[in-house]
Amino acid sequence: MIEVENLRKEYGGFVAVEGSDFTVPEGEVFGIVGPNGAGKTTTLKMLAGLVEPTSGSARVAGYDARDAEMREHLGFLPEESPLYEDMTATSYLHFFADLYDVPDETAERRIHDTLDELDLDHRDRPLGDVSKGMKRKVAIARSLVNDPDVLVYDEPASGLDPLTTNYIVEFTRDLAESGKTVVFSAHNLFHVESVCDRVAVMNDGRIVARGSVEAIREEYGRTEYHVYTTVDVAGAVPVDDARATVRAAAGATADAGGVYRRVVESMDAVEETRELATAAGGEVADIETKTPSLEDIFLDIATESPGVEGRP
Ligand code: ATP
């Protein structure tokens, strides 16, 4: 369980995070999404007890995030996690299990099972010689050696190929299904869509949208209809480039007038356009339905939302 209330971090007058509020129950995956500098890492570091909040509170597994005891219940994956290059995956993970005082037998079983679940080969190669994706998997395995209740992952799949990204993102889902609380950050909505129960979109230090990806899509992802008419109607603009194809679609004759496009957001407005075109002696030649991609939605949210005071 994670409970964040009115969390704020200011660095000498610069507001990195402002008024963050969210709760993540056990068994849920929560995504924090946002462009560079939005405040994702600062938020996660406050959860991990690595950055002291200026005000507000962050509670993790029932403890204040600043409480040293909290760390026994936390698995944190930093954005960059340099590993000891001379160690093998297995020896490296045993080293961390020792730091957490995990009994040898438990550590042996846990490390073996986690590496199996992560489908990690080359467990006995020095970490300096393994691929970036494998290094990231080892860092994830490290976050699990103490069998934590809460996992806080900063960009777990950043810079990895799509297959490994998918694997890691799906793995976080499995962790939540086993009862853990998972929060992770990502740059865009793609990677989070399939695994996150809910997301918070951050921009300029503030959460500017939140909910399930589906709800965000519904709220911000308005479908547009591009209605092409053979006559000028109110709100339409002439479209030169589409003239030939649309005319052909309409069966218009070569000497007919131009083609016009009216962009509307409802089927009623499409119907109204049809009536306007008919009244003007023309017709609707074509209708295109434009459903925004997640990327479009994300860009809209990020660019339209106001930032916080204290950010230049
Ligand atoms: P990215 O996707 O690039 O990792 P982010 O969303 O994780 O970005 P943060 O790293 O949390 O963003 O940074 C938020 C803002 O706070 C940035 O403008 C950053 O420069 C600033 N910031 C972060 N840490 C510090 C610090 N220690 N001192 C001063 N400013 C900081």
Q: Strands, helices and their partners?
A:
Blueprint: E1 2-11, E2 14-24, E3 29-33, H1 40-47, E4 55-60, E5 63-64, E6 74-77, H2 89-99, H3 104-117, H4 132-142, E7 150-153, H5 162-177, E8 181-186, H6 190-193, E9 198-203, E10 206-211, H7 213-220, E11 224-229, E12 237-238, H8 243-250, E13 260-264, H9 267-279, E14 284-290, H10 294-304
Parallel strand pairs: 3-8, 3-9, 6-7, 7-8
Antiparallel strand pairs: 1-2, 1-4, 4-5, 9-10, 11-13, 11-14, 12-13
The protein binds adenosine-5'-triphosphate.
Summarize the structure.
The protein is of the alpha/beta class. It has helices at residues 40-47, 89-99, 104-117, 132-142, 162-177, 190-193, 213-220, 243-250, 267-279, 294-304; strands at 2-11, 14-24, 29-33, 55-60, 63-64, 74-77, 150-153, 181-186, 198-203, 206-211, 224-229, 237-238, 260-264, 284-290.
